[in-house]
Amino acid sequence: MSEMTPYADVADSPSTADSPSTADDPSTADDPSTVDHPGTAVPAIRLIGIAKRFVSRRGTVTAVERVDLVINEGEFFSLLGPSGCGKTTTLRMIGGFEEPTEGQILLYGRDVVGVPPNHRDVNMVFQSYALFPHMSVYDNVAFGLKRKSVPTAEIRQRVNEMLDLVQLDGKADRRPRELSGGQQQRVALARALVNRPRALLLDEPLAALDLKLRQAMQIELKRIQREVGITFVFVTHDQNEALTMSDRLIVMNAGKIEQLATPRDMYERPASRFVAGFIGTSNILTGTVKTMDGTTAILETGVNESLVVPEATGLIAGQQLDLTVRPEKIVLSAEPPGPGLCGLRGRVMEVVYLGTSTQYAVKTAEGADLLAFLQNASDSSDVAARGDDVYLTWRPEHSLCLGQTSGAQLDEEAVA
Amino acid sequence: MISRIWRTRLAPYALILPGWLWLVIFFVVPTLSMLSVSTMTGNDLDGFKQTFHLSTYSDAWSEYHTQIVRSLVYGLIATVLCLVIAYPVAYWIAFRGGRYKSSLLFLLLLPFFVSFVIRTQSWEFMLDDHGMVLGTLRTFHLVGVMKTLHLVSSSGTILQTSTAVIGGLVYNFLPFTVLPIYVALERVEPSLLEASSDLYANKFHAFRKVVFPLSLPGIFAAVLLTFVPVASDYVNAQILGGTKNTMIGTAIETEYFTNLNYPVAAALSFILMAVLLIGVFLYARILGTEDALEMAAA
Ligand SMILES: Nc1ncnc2c1ncn2[C@@H]1O[C@H](COP(=O)(O)OP(=O)(O)OP(=O)(O)O)[C@@H](O)[C@H]1O
Ligand SMILES: [Mg+2]
Fold it and tell me: pTM for the complete prediction?
């Protein structure tokens, strides 16, 4: 398979995913002499101050606003966010189907703003697949190579290899409409990958598939990406998909980047209330800082002043802060929290059995609604029943500071 | 029980009954009665009698085969010209029309709210020896060129030439060509164009490899919808063509309304129908298959 991986050296190199700060170093980007040398420090894709405004008769829509981004070579990078946040627009600007209103797009250091898609070394997998209905699977996949005047024998070899890779060998003569959704999806993937682009852009490629097939294709996509070692830029609004597949991802909201992180960091250290709410199920609490102990905030709320929030930098006593605790970090117990644990009092409102875990909806004494997921151990009966008064406890490091409360949210979930 | 049989078995037939009645009353009965007229003998004064006189057909053929062949030739030329003109129009409306698409289609059809005959008549004025077409040609000194190309008569007129007839036919039947092509082009997903551009195709290749092949079914339908009415048209030949360029439609019309020779008119109608049916059948068999469309696309 190695002859199919033009940038295999990159795929095998240690992931740079954990160091977004080095990727952000501007000194690595602008040397054009390195353009043709994959594997050097030039990022595959670099967006500088990208903005996109659509002007129509009904007014101006800002789809993307001041996006700065560095995507490294060989990386599986996801754009995640709610509907309408500008993911597709961002991707289409990288592909050349939309021109940015402001900013620069660098592909391997070359500014490609104004360069049409057929002259960009990236390929796109469209959400609707956009397979050519009048061509066989083979001709669909061969389309790009024929346009690039690759010799026929080589075309045949590369197309067949690619059909093998996406497990569609034997389907070469079929029409797209004679294939299932998952197979069509793989044709779309093969048609883009066979050109050995420097980056592959995928716009919700799995959205049309049912859950089971989608999960199978997620694994499949990851395998293919590892094998070909090409940079994947993957758009999705499914957070599980983004978390399981990506090396790094961004969460977008209203045209802006909320956070760039690895999946683990995104989940465990959401930087904003929006990210915490968007990724996973989050309990968001608001409390008033009583005192600060270094960077740790001790809140007025909580049993025996036990509710502490580490890394609450920049806050002072009297300010309100938002914090979040993941439901699976919370333990329910009848006893008050032991020393060094955070704790709140509450009453169980709902118990939902979920198979491997049980979900408890608890209303705290202060009136906030929290969720807790508890694993169902082999011997356990339910920890608490509806109507029970319980303590919710967790370790302080699981209190994540989301920053100072901005005014509007105060009335919603005020703890104190 | 009975009501169930009624619902599952008979109801579908009952529902298409009006359609059947319509077909029988307005198509089958007239066709059969025409068929019977075509084998009658007699004359207008003494009346016609059924004598199963089949040689009317061979007589009609030997008298009018030039007109039949001419109709087919004019039909072919006019259809090709219609395609050449209609395709860019349909393409432009489908891909560049934006939110004005329906207005543009309406504009295309606007002249056709005026009677067919009046429209053709106004063409007569335009093509007249002192009309604007010849006037324009003279201004640009193109009459000589047109003469060498045999597009105008040796005396430099357009009326009474095949150019006039074919011009009128193209004008009158153009919408029949535009609309099916427009429908086919309109259905081409814009994302397919983006995909071909993504796969290194320039605009020409995207058209040649994607848009054009996908519009072939529209072209196929347009040819049928244009050729059949054009080949059987009689108004254009009559008004613009004079006596030297009559088409089969004109001949039928003359036999029926002027000579009052109903059997010959009926026989001619059936000959025309047979020729067109065979032509259409062959056309559909040869070009209407998926393979043929594919070959054209390759
Ligand atoms: N061609 C366009 N003209 C006008 N507005 C547009 C256009 N394309 C996108 N927009 C607007 O830009 C915003 C971002 O759209 P975009 O398609 O990028 O969202 P998205 O994140 O991909 O959403 P989804 O998950 O629903 O696909 C939306 O408000 C949308 O209405
Ligand atoms: Mg989208």
Answer: 0.79
Q: What's the pLDDT tens digit per position in B188-246?
A: 999 999 999 999 999 999 999 999 999 999 999 999 999 999 999 989 999 999 888 89
Pick from A253, A216, A281, A263: nearest CA to A78 = A263
Distance CA A234, CA A245 (A): 9
Q: How many domains does chain B have?
A: 1
Cα(A91) to ligand 2 centroid in Å equals 9
Query: Which of the residues in chain B have pLDDT under 70?
Result: 1-2, 290-298
Q: Tokens for A10, please give them.
A: 């990159």
Q: Which fold has domain A281-413?
A: OB fold (Dihydrolipoamide Acetyltransferase, E2P) (2.40.50)
Report the CATH number that the domain containing residue B138 is assigned in CATH. 1.10.3720.10
In terms of Cα–Cα distance, which of A408, A274, A318, A299 is closest to A364?
A299
A128 → chain B, closest CA residue: B191
Ligand 2: centre distance to CA A232 (Å): 16
In terms of residue numbers, what domain contains B71? 63-297
Out of B191, B209, B293, whose CB is closest to A130? B191
pLDDT digits (tens, 9 = 90+) for A188-229: 999 999 999 999 999 999 888 888 888 888 998 899 899 889
Say if B280 falls within a structural domain.
Answer: yes
Would you say residue B70 lies in a domain? yes
Instruction: Report the run of H or E that residue B184 belongs to, with start and end.
Output: helix B162-186
Whether A173 contacts A136, CB under 8 Å: yes
Q: Does residue B28 lie in a domain region? A: no
CB contact under 8 A, B197 and A117: yes
Q: Which of residues 199-218 of B touch A (CB under 8 A)?
A: 199-202, 205, 209-210, 213-214
**B108's tokens:** 């295309």
Would the CB atoms of A130 and B189 count as touching at under 8 Å?
A: yes
**Domain boundaries along the sequence of chain A:** 281-413
Q: Is residue B267 part of a domain?
A: yes
